Amino acid sequence: xxxxxxxxxxxxxxxxxxxxxxxxxxxxxxxxxxxxxxxxxxxxxxxxxxxxxxxxxxxxxxxxxxxxxxxxxxxxxxxxxxxxxxxxxxxxxxxxxxxxxxxxxxxxxxxxxxxxxxxxxxxxxxxxxxxxxxxxxxxxxxxxxxxxxxxxxxxxxxxxxxxxxxxxxxxxxxxxxxx
Length: 179
Known about the structure:
By secondary structure, this protein is of the alpha+beta class. It is built from six helices and eight strands; from the N terminus they run βαββαβαβαββαβα.
């Protein structure tokens, strides 16, 4: 059994509303086990015998569309991947405030040329590191909410779907998917 977390983009932060009970039910109805949500923002940890994370993500996305008429990107990471992310943040030793540390999860690894061209908008003090399918973010002088270096900005500049979680959420999800 592999532990996974599904990260849904844009749920319960705008007009796309999803009850976490519905998300747990959908994941369970797909044959996955021990579905537990974290917060109200589209995070669900679960166990599965399916070994292909992309197949798991596609199944959840399809069920959300079929059953609830919701079309939202679903990104899936294994517990092992989350442990590596939680243990590999290059900014964790520089910042005590978890609201200034975030991780943008990417649907696919971006092209090297787009990573090389990625820059922080002028006047902002944000550090970032792109590692595979994640972007580690450190908002040095303030929070994410006041920045232009947002999820939408990353999607546009990198050309891939992204969903961003704060460091407290990343650590909690890593714990939920630990063996």
